[in-house]
Amino acid sequence: MFEGVRPQWANLERLQEAVRTCPDRHPRSGAAAMLVARTVRSALRVRIIGLAAESAFFSLLSLPSLLLGLVGTLGHLSSVLGHQTVVEIRAWMLDLAATVLTAEAVQTTVEPLVDDFLGGAHGGVLSLTFLVSLWSGSRAMSVFIEAITIAYGLEGMRGYLRRRLLAFVAYLGALLFALVVLPAVVAGPDALRALLPAADTYLHLGYWPLVGLLSLGSIVALYTLSVPVRTSLVRQLPGAIAAVLILLCGTVGLRLYLEASFGQVNLYGPLTAPIIIVIWLYLTALAVLAGSSLNAEIDAMWPVAETARARAELAARRQASAVRLAERHEQALQRIAQAREQDTRVAESRAGKNSEVQSSPRPDRAAAARRRLARPRRRRR
């Protein structure tokens, strides 16, 4: 009796209509629901799941060479930064490696490698590590720029070479930023604690908020740089805040999952650390791309003059390109029709000549020979 009856939420058309008319029926909460629905649709259209995986792969590929290059550079700058700062950075990196690797792997592999690079790596080795890091890291940055541009609907504003050059410059700027911020983040709390012993509690409480603010500023800078037109930093804050929150929740969830899965028995052995790193990089890329989709839909619902003008210009350019393509298609069809008409006329003329030849009477050679024999011959004088 009720086999053909489906609930209202299972009817896709009615669900889309309900989402579309939600802002009119609920002016306050409807706009937020519409924004969430449009963000999810934009994320699926941009394919942030696949692009996040691509970015995570290239980020993982660039991570060893990046860390070794930074360590080698800090080793050459030990006279400027101070020996104590380099020692603290070394301890921080070993502690960071110990969180994802076993103690034996840190002692036998990571620690000797870090000591060699901190002692002053050879210029050729250092240059090679930076080249590998620049190529793979700029490729990951290019994925972010391309996805953010597509989310804003401005994918035709930049060419391939311009996008890769922008990704290279952005990644190089990120390296310089990390080179400046890393010593400050690692050695800064100890220096302030030595200067202000009474501020130890406040430093402990303010460390992670400072890291969060630096992450927020980096994401805002990436969003602003990736949009082909000039936009204000305030317009990029909602997506950046959403990206930081998604990354924070994802990191907490990943930690709980790892404690539940690998807390007792390690099934993957030495592959555990790369798996954890690539999952975290994937969550980071997914959070950044989801935040960019949110910013793009906010701009689509409440556009500013710059992006609206760029979309109109891009639409006019695409329309002109479509008109030119249609004209070329029409000209090609006309040339084909003329060629076919000419071939038809040639075939008809050839057929007419053949029919005339076939209809003309053929000479009777035997009758002509008999007439020649019947003629009276002239007598010779």
From TrEMBL:
Ranges annotated as biased composition (Basic residues): 368-381
Listed InterPro entries: Virul_fac_BrkB
The UniProt record lists the keyword Transmembrane: yes
Keywords: Cell membrane, Membrane, Transmembrane, Transmembrane helix
Subcellular location: Cell membrane
Transmembrane regions listed in the UniProt entry: 48-71, 125-153, 165-186, 206-225, 237-258, 270-291
Mode of membrane association: Multi-pass membrane protein
Annotated GO CC locations: plasma membrane
Presence of the UniProt keyword Membrane in the record: yes
Biased composition (Basic and acidic residues): 339-353
Highest taxon of source: Bacteria
UniProt region (Disordered), positions on chain: 339-381
One family name in Pfam for this protein: Virul_fac_BrkB
PANTHER family referenced in this protein's UniProt entry, alphabetically: INNER MEMBRANE PROTEIN YHJD, UPF0761 MEMBRANE PROTEIN YIHY
This protein's name: YihY/virulence factor BrkB family protein
Lineage summary: Bacteria, Bacillati, Actinomycetota, Actinomycetes, Streptosporangiales
